[in-house]
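re: ur question from earlier - yeah i can do the single chain one, its not a big deal. heres the input i used so u can compare w yours
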Amino acid sequence: MNVQEFESQYRDAMTETLNELQTAVLLLAQVQRKISQIGSSVQSLSQSVEEYITNQTPD
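and the output i got, formated as tokens:
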């Protein structure tokens, strides 16, 4: 293998690796957004349950 072939293989491998890293970062952003949405849903459900329990408690 000569220097040009080595350079070409290196660049191809580096490009592929950086593309994979970019994909992983984008997927991480999606997961973080989904976790945030789920957290908001849990908070909303908890608030609804608390309100229901409060309204069911006799004074």
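The chain has one helix and no strands. not sure if urs matches, ping me
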